Amino acid sequence: MKVLIVGDGARENAIASSLSSKYKVYAFSSYVNPGIKEVVQRTEGEYLVGEIEPAQIRDAISKVNPDMGIIGPEEPLFHGVSDEFRKEGIPVFGASKNNARIEESKVWARSLMWKYGIPGRLRYKAFQSIEEAAEFISRYGGSLAVKPAGQAGGKGVKVIADIQAYLSKEKREAMAKSVNEIGTYYNKEGEPKIIVEEKVDGPEYTLHVLSDGNTLLPLPLAQDYKNAYQDGIGPETGGMGSVSGPMELLPFISKEEYEETFEIIKQTISAIEKETGEKYNGAIAGQMMLTGLWGPTVIEYYSRFGDPEAAAIIPRIKDDFGDLVEKTATGHLNKAKVEVDERASLVWTVSPLGYPLDRKMASNHRISVDVKKIREIGCEVFFGSVSLEDGFLVTKGSRALELVCLGDLNESRAKLTKSISWIGADTELIYRTDIGSTMEEQIQKAEVVRYTYTSRRKKGFLGASADWSPNGGLW
């Protein structure tokens, strides 16, 4: 079977590497990813390079004549790349342009949750004017999360605590400047620029679900680590590491909470299909937080696999992952099951200095990786923002590598530390060694949150919250 994979990052490398020998892998991306190229060569496929947009994908489909397509990143989904496969009658793993709106627009996602009464929803207010958003924030008396109104690669989120609301003129001016910056991350004509949500707190986790339009199949949980630097400080990124397991859970999430989260995703897919009139095909994920307000609470949705969560989840699937993808694309997911490796997985992301604030500084550096040695100790390497140019590996400005190891987290941490020693570059590399090291703290935090939301549930207050703003709060 000929498969055309669209995308050029570590997530696509992880997907390509999971495909069994029955698939002949073709790739289309904006540069040559060395990890994906390894799979293409092994399966005797072909690597195509170009701009990932509908017109060039149409040309690639015409050239390759694939039996199936797999779309990895979100931006191609937003621009309707998966729809190009469907126009040709080719099964494709990837949400349609209309269905991918669940990720592209945070405002649409929130409004959908409220319209259909989906649990885990947060109160929000959207603003097309940056000035109106800044004015609202300066007057509001509660804690808030301020975000770009649409998908912005995990950037631009700012939390404002309630005590800041009544501070000095200088503080308010600083907040207004911050809001102005957030407003630059998403600027789609005719749509809100900023969304303001009530702030919640608790441990975060992600549930990915496969959907073929009729059958839903939940995958193991994962946890993403967004902040750039050690111990969770610094700017937010696309993700500096991830943990999954053991089994289908995480140590701080119960089986009941897993099932409740799955129910939220079920209701979300049903709502999406009612709004768009299109069956949802591909992966959908809830980026969740366990909160005292609801228990499982939606922070945002993905219309594809998260990255680096995919690198943590896919290696734990014992079944032929390509078979799961194929059954999803072709509408036969009812014949599939997921057998999960009981061991936990640990992912460390390695990035060039400059990421995420200065992509130019993080670009055009040579990097070397002894993949053989890393694999010999039981770990794996997925290549991200690294291009193969004239026999050299060259950074492209984002996360360069994802190192993955399965087993006891402490043992995996030691192996990943060793793996780092086999990576060289002509610039400083940044990575976090604390990924997965705070499980006990998160277990304790989850217990406190669990006591709160279960108490609220017994009293009938689940999801209810009070406004203490003199100006009417979020509504």
Number of strands: 25
Which ranges are low-confidence, i.e. pLDDT below 50, for 5 or more consecutive residues? Answer: 468-472
Largest sheet: 6 strands, antiparallel
Radius of gyration: 22 Å
Helix content: 25-40%
CATH fold group of the largest domain: D-amino Acid Aminotransferase, Chain A, domain 1
Q: Looking at the structure, what is the overall shape?
A: globular
Do you know the CATH architecture of the largest domain? Answer: 2-Layer Sandwich
Determine the mean pLDDT.
91
In CATH, the homologous superfamily of the largest domain goes by the name ATP-grasp fold, B domain
Decide which structural class fits the backbone.
alpha+beta
Number of domains: 4
Give the strand content.
Answer: 25-35%
Number of helices: 15
Q: Please identify the top-level CATH class of the largest domain.
A: Alpha Beta
- Head-to-tail CA distance between termini: 53 Å
